[in-house]
Every structure is written in structure tokens, then in C-alpha cells.
Amino acid sequence: MNPLRPLATAALVALLLTSLVLPNAHAVTIEWVTVGDPGNTADTTGVPNPAGAVADSFRIMKFEFTNSQYTEFLNAVDPSGTNPNSVYSTNMGSDARGGISFTSGATNGSKYAVKTNMGDKPVNHVSWFDAARVANWLQNGQGSGSTETGAYTLNGATTGNAPAVNSGASYFLPTEDQWYKAAYYKGGGTNAGYWDYATQSDTAPTAVTADSTGIGSAGSTGNFANFNATADWNSQDGNVTTVGSNGGASAYGAFDMSGNVWEWNDLTGAAGSSRGLRGGYWSENGAFHLSSSSRFTYAPSFLDDFDGVGFRLASPVPVPEPSTWVMGLAGIACGGWQMYRRRRAR
Ligand SMILES: [Ca+2]
Ligand SMILES: [Ca+2]
Ligand SMILES: [Ca+2]
Ligand SMILES: [Ca+2]
User: Fold this and answer.
1) Which of 39, 119, 150, 322 can pair with 136 through a Cys bridge, CB separation 3.0 to 4.6 Å?
2) Cβ neighbours of residue 267 closer than 8 Å, sequence gap 6 or more
3) Whether pLDDT at 227 is above 70
4) Which ligand is nearest to the CA of 184?
5) Which domains does the chain have, with CATH numbers?
6) Ligand nearest to the CA of 280
């Protein structure tokens, strides 16, 4: 008997179990960049002052969270279309700059769909609570994972104070210092200094134009950003554009931290009645709000109706252990193998 056959069969069993048990066929994948240089010096030339000092390495999303990713989230957490906790804004469908439609009569699990040319654009019309629910869902392994506990203990809250991030969270909104460092720090040491714009420049970026599908004119290089309402496409005077197509990345390789959409941050990470926004958006008149000198705070429930606010998540370094459902799968696969081996042994 071929001694490799039981092993190959076990692998096949594990694979079959994985494909059967996986709760969602289209798991969201996220590209990260690592923000190193732990213990870096703060910036004293921006706002707030000081800003940008972070003790530990961490990861941040290379791009803004997209409509495609948010659609996977919506179909997974709301297969029957009841819109729990207002995770969907009807503006995503009705606003030409929103990217996600809802069809109540569509098949369960497919009621949300990306609009034409909008999948690779940043999601907008999202409050801080919406972003926190995405972090929870990722923390809980996607699929039918809870949106209410995990990184943030929300338990149905859509208004009021934002809770502090739970210790050990694998996905979370960056603190303002983390966001600031990822955007403006020059990197390569602990006292490297800061750029004024997240395109590794102290000179205001050039505003991009867009092609008919919403791809920014700068490609992936250069001191460009999406602001000034110059990305006119789909009959809009200024619009969101394809993430990563708008210009130079930060020193750590994160795109669109200046412009495209404003991004939620967690301020200091403590519980509170406000949360931060940084980076400016596609309609900024001038580059000031794209710079290290601009910040806003809003109630975490606000801006569900605004097409200029999105988010990107952060994550610890080293990368956390696989989430519990992956461990569960490994257990099921191992159990299957043990059963198989016992059966063979008879
Ligand atoms: Ca500065
Ligand atoms: Ca919402
Ligand atoms: Ca225009
Ligand atoms: Ca942005």
C-alpha cells in the first residue's frame, strides 16, 4: 500500500471540510503595509502638536476600505436585507458617488452589489460605528461573525460614545498618532522628520483628473492626490477615484492618505464622544486639509450621509494568531483525519 495515500486523503478531507465549512465564498482580503520605526520622535510642526510618535510597530491598510470590500461585508452580515445597526446607508445607492446598490428582491446573501466602476473606489457614507463593525467582523473571522463584539464592544450601539478598543484586538481604527505617522513620517529611523503631505512632499500635490472609469491620472507615482473636484467622471463635478491611482504613497507605502476620502481615526483610543477625521477628500478647495496641519473631530455616529468620509483599518505587528474559526477548522480537519485513521486501522 502506498504510505502516502492516507496523508493525501487526509489533506483532501481537510480541503473539502474547509470548502464546506467556509461561511463565505468571497472572503475579504486586505493589503497591509508595515509601519516600523517604533519609538519614533513626534512631529512638533503639525496639528495636533505633538503628533505621530508611536511606541510599537503596526500595520495599516495600503488602501482605503473599498466598496467591493464593504459589499462583501454587507452581504455576509445582512444576507436577508434587514440592515442591522444601519450598516447600509441608502445614500450608497442613491448618490452617484456612493458605490453600493441594494435590491430587496435579490437572492439572500446577494442583495448588495457594487455599482458600475465603483468596486475599487473607497466606500463612503460610513460612520465610525460602521467602520468599527467591520473591524469586529474581521476579528471574528468574517462570514457570520458578530459585528457587535470583538475589537469593539458595541452591542447594538449606533449613537452615543465610541467605546475604547478592546485589548488584543487584531483589527481596529488607527489612533490619530498611528494614522499621522503612517501618512507623514519620513521613516528609516527614530528621528527622521515628517512631510507636510502624505505623498512624501512638503509641496502641495497636484490634483488628479480621472478617466471615464474613475482611474486617477497620476498612476501610482508622483506628488498627486484626489482633491479640488478635478476628478470629473460619471457626470460628476469631482468624484471618488480608484484607490492607489491618485498619486504617491506615504513613506510606508500607504496610498490616498492625502485626499480621495477623509478617514476615521480613534484619537487616543480611549472611549469618548468624538472621533477623528484626517486627510481631506475629493472636493477639498486647496490642499490644506490634505496636510499634517488639518484635523477634524465629529461624533462617531455622524457622516452617514456624507460622500467624503471613509476609513482604513490598522492591525498589530506581529500579525495575530489565526482567528478562532480558522483554529476550529484545523480542529475539524484533524478530527476528520483521526476518524479516517481509526477506520483504516480496523
Ligand atoms: Ca510640518
Ligand atoms: Ca451607517
Ligand atoms: Ca471639476
Ligand atoms: Ca484618504
Assistant:
1) 150
2) 175, 176, 274, 275, 276, 297
3) yes
4) 1
5) 29-327 (3.90.1580)
6) 4
